[in-house]
Amino acid sequence: MNTIVGVIEERFPHVKRPEQIKLKCAQYVRNVWLPAHSSSERTKEEHMRALGLLVRALGRNEHWLGALGIHSCLKKGGRPTQIKIRQSRKYYR
Question: Which of 31, 67, 79, 93 is 20 to 30 A from residue 44's alpha carbon, by CA?
């Protein structure tokens, strides 16, 4: 994730805080920087996974993931990306 943020800061010098990262910055990483700097397919997957984590951590809209071509695979297992919290039960004594 640090690599991706470093690339964004280098290419877009006006970005000083995470809240300033826009969709065009993430698309630059995916479309321009990643193909030019990552030769291994596994490395590309790791960078895309980190980019998805960054988008989720920033609290951006879910359409960003679709625009970046990031789709969560339900076959891999693990905890779902969207967790719903039910009302807690109250125990009376």
Answer: 79
